[in-house]
Every structure is written in structure tokens, then in C-alpha cells.
Amino acid sequence: MFKSAMVGLLSMFAVLMLPQVAQAEYADVVINNYADAAGMRPVVFPHWYHRIRFRCKVCHADLGFKFKAGGNKITMAKIIDGKFCGACHNGEISWSVENCGMCHSGVPGMPTQIHGSTVQRLVAPTYKSLGKPAK
Amino acid sequence: MKTKYFFLSVLAMTTLLVVGFNAQAAQAPLKEVKSAKGNVSGANVFNRLLKKDAQRNAAPAEDGIHDSANDGTHVLQPPLIAYDGLPTSEFGNYVDWVKSLDDGLLKPRYDLSDPTVEPLVMDLDIVREVKASMPDVVFPHKPHTQWLHCSNCHPKIFIPQRKANVMSMSAILLGQKCGVCHGKVSFPVTTKSCTKCHSKPKPADWKPPKSEASLKNPWR
User: Fold this and answer.
1) Which of B6, B17, B57, B65 to mutate to test the interface with A (most CBs of A within 10 A)?
2) What pLDDT score does B45 carry?
3) Within a domain: residue A127?
4) Sequence-ordered list of residues with C-beta below 8 angstroms from that of A69, at least 6 positions apart, any chain
């Protein structure tokens, strides 16, 4: 009895946590490939902030970011190596990786998605957690 | 066992009720409009199901995807501060990014560290004839090359050859071709943005093509 009550309560909260009430900025990307499994909040990447400072080409041609949310399999090791976000977030062009909470700022458990995406509105989100990164 | 299922279903029902209530609360508040004549239903309101954004360009702490319990969230810049003075649009971020760039209001870098690098801009319009009655599509290379590099689209997304790219609105809405960016980052596909692409009116003598069924109709 208690167990079923808990399951019911949990599902109630889970439904309430769905992003239907989210008013996030268009094109904000939530990346939760490995964050949840590592006990971190998912990353929220604001496209709007970055496009004011850089043209698409810089990240999507020069730095090799694919046009796919969660498709780049970014890990902290790669960032510290100067790849992906680490090309700028190195303390030189922009602030460095010790500011964990500024990127890892998403609601815990939120799946990888692009906020305001037409695809996401039309089809069920297919993004899945990738689990632990391959060593 | 029975009580268990009963309990679960009651909880599920309450959840649905609460969710329904929340979804309504997120929309513009419905006004109770009573007829002047008295006992007519209050359901006959204007645009009953029209969803409105509760808040545009919400600050990170209130936007629903940032965790407000996280200290870093409150350090992040709210978008509205950054958008001040930029030309507006009716969709996406509600900012006209291309116009901002053209008017020189924004100077995003084309190179990671060198702010003097100029983009390789190509001014070439591609006209794509549309089978149906919508105006033909004009694809302007100029605003695209201002932001992107040729290799972002060619040859993987768009084969650089005439008639080689088959496109449809459903493919775009599902994230292919133009939809790789439009509908995710660049201006979305909404009823307000159709004419941004479908911008070349059909010739005066244009008639919609007849469907097969119509052509084969013996009584035509």
C-alpha cells in the first residue's frame, strides 16, 4: 500500500516536472548525455548568448560541433583538452571550467533537447542518456 | 490488491487533474464572459484554445529548464537585457538576428580569436519553384554565408547541384534540409514566417497543376 502510494506520488511529481510549463529561450539546448549519471545537473547551452558573440561558423565549422543536440558526446576531459567548449572556456577567451554551475545549471533529470524545437513538438523526443562515457 | 489499484488510479486521476489545471494556468487566464442577456453559457469566449506565451524571453531562473536552486543560474545573463535595442521579430527569440547583423548592431566574430576576420559572403539567390499554390521559395545565400561556412551545408545537407535536392515542408518540420537549423535555432516554421522563404509570387498566368485523379476523370 505504502509502496503504491509512493509510486503514485512520484509519478505525480514526474508529470508535474514535464517541460510543458517551460518558458525557456528559443534554441536553448539541454545536454544530458552523461551529467545525470555523474551526479551533475544537465548542461544548458544558450544559443542566443553565443550567437551575439560568434557566428555559427566558428563552432559548427571550425570547432566541429555537429548540428545535433547531444550528438557531440562532449565530456569534461575533452573540454579540458581544449576541444568543443574548451576551445573558448579556458580562461582566455571566456571563463574557465571551474565555474561548474554556470553550465551545469539545468533541472536535474531533464533529457537532452532543444527548447522550442519544431521536431520536438511534432514527434516524441528520441534523445536518450548515453550512460557512462567510453574510456 | 483491489485497494492498491484503486489507490493508484485515484492518484493518477488527481495527477491528470492537477496537470490539466497547471496547463490552463500556464496559458492566458480565461476570462468569464457572461452574456449581457444573462444565462447564456460562459463557454462562448473568443479564442478559447489559443495558447499564449505566459512570458517571453524569461530570465534563466524562471524559464523552467534552469534549476533555480543552483547558484550559477542566478549569475547567467537574462536574455532581455542582451536584446535591448535589437530589431524584433514575431517568432523564435523574438529578435531579428539577420537585420541586427545588417544594421551593424551586432558584430559576432567569424574567427575564434581574431575579431578582424571578415566572412566570405556570397550573394546568390536560388529560386525553387513550388508545385503547389504557395509563392516560390527564394533562398538567399547572403544572410546564410554571413553566419555560416559553405561546408556547414554543402555537400552533406544540400547537394550543390540543380534539382538534386528533394524537399518538402514535412521533411523540414521533421528536422531535415532547412529544418536542420530552421525550427531549432534560426527562425522557426510558423504561420507567421511562411513568407520569409515563400517570397516570390507566382507568375500571373500560373494555374495550380491538376491532380492525377482529376486528369483521369472521364467526366471532366
Assistant:
1) B65
2) 80
3) no
4) A29, A30, A31, A112, A113, A114, A127
Contacts of A8 (CB under 8 A, 6+ apart): B7, B8, B11, B12, B15
Contact A88, B112 (CB under 8 A): yes
How far apart are the CA of A76 and the nearest CA of chain B, in angstroms? 18
Question: Where do the domains of chain B lie, and which CATH numbers do they carry?
Answer: 121-200 (3.90.10.10)
Are A57 and B18 a contacting pair at CB < 8 A? no
Shortest Cα–Cα distance, B137 to chain A (Å): 20
Rounded to the nearest 5 percent, the helix, strand and coil shares of chain A are 40, 10, 50
Instruction: Specify the pLDDT at position B47.
Output: 80
| Sheet architecture: strand order including B198-200 | B125-128, B136-140, B198-200
Q: What is the pLDDT of residues A26-57, one digit of tens each?
A: 999 999 999 999 999 999 999 999 999 999 99
SS3 B42: coil
Q: Residue A39: what pLDDT? A: 95
Domain-embedded: residue A11: no
Contacts of B135 (CB under 8 A, 6+ apart): B195, B198, B199, B200, B201, B202
Which among B11, B93, B95 has the least Cβ separation from residue A8? B11
Q: What is the pLDDT of residues B31-75, one digit of tens each?
A: 555 555 677 777 888 887 877 766 889 999 999 999 999 999 999
Domain of A111, CATH number, reads 3.90.10.10
For residue A134, being part of any structural domain is answered with: no
What 3-state DSSP class applies to B208? Answer: coil
Place B3 in a pLDDT band, splitting at 50, 70 and 90.
low
For B61, which DSSP code?
Answer: G
pLDDT given at position A126: 55
The tally of domains found in chain A comes to 1
